[in-house]
Amino acid sequence: MNNKEKFEYTYTALSEKERQEVLSIKDNYTPTPHKKETKLERLRKLDNKVTNNATIIALILSIPGVLIFGTGITMVLEWNLIIWGIIVGIIGAIPIALAYPAYKYVLNKNKKKYGAEILKLSEELLEIKNK
Description:
The N and C termini lie far apart (69 Å). By secondary structure, the chain is mainly α. Helix 2 runs antiparallel to helix 3 (82-130). 78% of the residues lie in helices and 0% in strands. It has one domain.
């Protein structure tokens, strides 16, 4: 054989950290109807459900409110539409002012709804850890 017909092959294995990452990603896409949710995973999901829903409601109210309020300020400062700018600014301030009370309302409502289960799972997990 001459050098033109030479075959080279290089193999590099994944490190253990890379293997764990690949397996982690693979698990997200593998259908596993038999996979049972652990108590800690259930606790995390419930906690996220309580806090995330409240945060989403607050954002839904506050972001448009800030944009409308900013438009009102722009109307006053840049376009010299003082009366209309003040009216638009007040309209924008209303959802901003309601965002925090809405957040607290939804958070407390969800705490009441999921609180008992969260406390029960927490106690069970703490019992397991203390044994």
